[in-house]
Write a structure and sequence with these properties.
With 373 residues, the chain is mainly beta. It is built from two helices and 29 strands. It has a five-stranded parallel beta barrel with strand order 19-21-23-24-22.
Length: 373
């Protein structure tokens, strides 16, 4: 008797049969050796994957040292369980991302110790660079270690290269991987479209995920234990942050440029920081300042309107205050909604919003929120 597959199972079988097998490229086949400096071998595997039309570059269990690596279109840099991709200690071994378009609107802090300008080759150095890539990714469950590279020529006369810069890119994805000891930002993004960060863990270092310019970006189920702001940036259009665990020795979320459509939901913000603030000197402070800071223009001129900001279903505790705003001239802030926020163990202000100047949001709505010591 002829057996007939159920329609659902038949559809699954046909779907699997039609899925092309992902091509894999092991860095070991390109000459990488556990415990050695392997930049050329890893880059060769990435290049081979790109030339094959895309694929997965596998970093197996072990410790592999490298300096600047370049992601390519359609390539997934995959770190297996027990894999450690570790930076080298010499800051001169790293190279900068060089923009192909004018990204100067994202500059901030000009003339200060925190000058962040795209034409500053020192500031734009990184361990991994995704320059204009499409559908590239970095996945886990291994670890990328920036080893807190010190560089006296860097920001604040101490910061080294960012761990990852992805810029002018579409469809970038990061999942499962652990980023630790970033010498500056763990992830710095510029002009991203359809970027997704899922189940990523970021510990120590300075900022965690810092994105300047994004359209349709999602950060979900990520865990942060950072020495500086956990999530930061601005000029976002449709940014969703959800189901995250955010611990910082500075601020949980810091928006420094206007954004249209920021939603933060179902997340926990808590202090004090597990790891100390990287720039606090011998004091090594761990106190968390604010859960969420909305300060368009506070780091430098940033024209535009902040609108459709919705913060809801959040737990916050162990910080100075829950939400802070500081809108500077050149920026306009329209509407902010806080709903179902439980903020406790606050050491400073217990008002729904702490504002640092008179140019606040034109409309602030607060629903079912509690703020207490």
């Amino acid at each position: 008797m002829k057996r007939i597959l159920p329609l659902a199972l038949l559809a699954l079988v046909l779907s699997c049969a039609q899925q092309p097998k992902v091509k894999t490229f092991s860095i070991l086949d390109c000459g990488a050796v556990n415990g050695a400096e392997c930049t050329e071998a890893i880059q060769q595997a990435i290049d081979k994957a790109e030339q094959a039309g895309g694929g997965q570059v596998v970093i197996p269990a072990g410790t592999f040292l490298a300096h600047t690596l370049y992601l390519k279109d359609g390539v997934d840099l995959h770190l297996e369980e027990g894999a450690l991709l570790q930076g080298v200690s010499d800051p001169d071994e790293y190279f900068p991302y060089i923009p192909t378009n004018d990204l100067s609107r994202f500059d901030s802090g000009n003339g200060t110790a925190n000058s962040n300008c795209v034409n500053d080759r020192q500031w734009m150095k990184a361990f991994i660079i995704g320059a204009g890539v499409k559908n590239a990714s970095i996945t886990g469950p291994g670890t990328i270690d920036g080893i807190h590279v010190f560089d006296e020529r860097g920001e604040e006369s101490m910061r080294g290269p960012h761990t990852i810069i992805v810029a002018e890119a579409e469809g970038f994805r990061m999942a499962d991987v652990h980023i630790t000891r970033a010498a500056n930002y763990a992830f710095l993004g510029y002009a991203l479209t359809d970027a997704v960060f899922e189940d990523v863990t970021m510990t120590e270092g300075w900022d965690g995920i810092h994105i300047r310019g994004a359209k349709n970006c999602v950060i979900r189920r990520c865990r942060f234990e950072t020495g500086d702001d956990s999530i930061a940036g601005g000029y976002w259009e449709n940014m969703l942050i959800e189901d995250c665990d955010i611990n910082s020795s500075c601020n949980g979320l810091r928006m420094i440029m206007p954004s249209d459509g920021l939603e933060v939901r179902n997340s926990v913000f808590h202090g004090p920081g597990v790891y100390p603030h990287r720039t606090s000197g011998e004091a090594r402070r761990t106190n968390m300042l604010f859960g969420i800071v909305l300060e368009p223009g506070a780091w430098g001129p940033a024209s535009g309107e902040a609108r459709n900001i919705y913060l809801h279903d959040l737990e916050m505790y162990g910080m100075s205050a829950a939400v802070s705003t500081s809108v500077r001239e050149g920026s306009v802030a329209q509407d902010l909604t806080l709903e179902n926020i439980n903020a406790r163990e606050l050491t400073g202000q217990m008002t729904p919003v702490v504002s640092w100047n008179d140019l606040g949001f034109r409309q602030v709505t607060v629903k079912n929120c509690t703020f207490s010591r």
